[in-house]
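Researcher: I'd like a structural prediction for the single chain below. Treat it as a standalone chain; there are no partners to consider.
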Amino acid sequence: VEPAQFQTMIDADGFLEYAQVFHNAYGTAAASVDALLAAGKDVILSIDWQGAQQVMARRPDTRSVFLLPPSLEALRERLTARGQDNPAEAEEQISHYRAFEFVIVNEDFQRAAGELQALILCDRLRRTRREADLQLLLRQLGQE
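Model: Treating it as a single chain, here is the predicted structure.
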């Protein structure tokens, strides 16, 4: 969006998280996420620790997952291959893993993806998330 519209969205509290990086503004529109959640979709945000802190502050029921590299050497190799990120900045990001609820070590992609899927399934089974869907069954079982 244009800078003026971005500022209007900030002023209207329209972002779950946003940041100014150099001369560009980035953000996650709350309305987009809310529409997906209302449709019963799971939403995964790929954001830095600062954005995650904003989301967790706005949405306390958020599940937070930090992906760790298997080693500093692997991190440096991945970032060099991508040619996008500064390895020193990425290393600094790692120090914030303690602020997250879950940690996955991304050594093997299939394993890391499986662990993330397990977390999503686990979250879907939370009582507080399922009670509305279970009302008929709970009535039949004499629990409502």
